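1st attempt posting a full record on here, be nice pls
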Amino acid sequence: QVQLVESGGGLVQPGGSLRLSCAASGSIFSIYAMGWYRQAPGKQRELVATITSGGSTNYADSVRGRFTISRDNAKNMVYLQMNSLKPEDTAVYYCNAEITTLRSLFRVQNYWGQGTQVTVSS
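the predicted structure (as tokens):
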């Protein structure tokens, strides 16, 4: 029983900034990689950024240099700082985490948040 709860989405003008947060809760034993994905209308869900438990990061080419992913392992949280936002960043953003639970200590499973809408428009 793991839940990912997101916050921070909304409407912003081009060039503006937003900070997304995602908190994992439940019967968690360990969290490995965490990440953010997004899905625009009529398009496939795509990777935005990932971060390992050790802090190594990976970004989509379209957001590299503008977005920053970070995490707080003590709080089981991951963040996405989005700067210089463009209309093409408009999408539903989803939090993802690789987690082992107290119920199954050796099985790594992917969990997803409910998604939060980010709209970049003038």
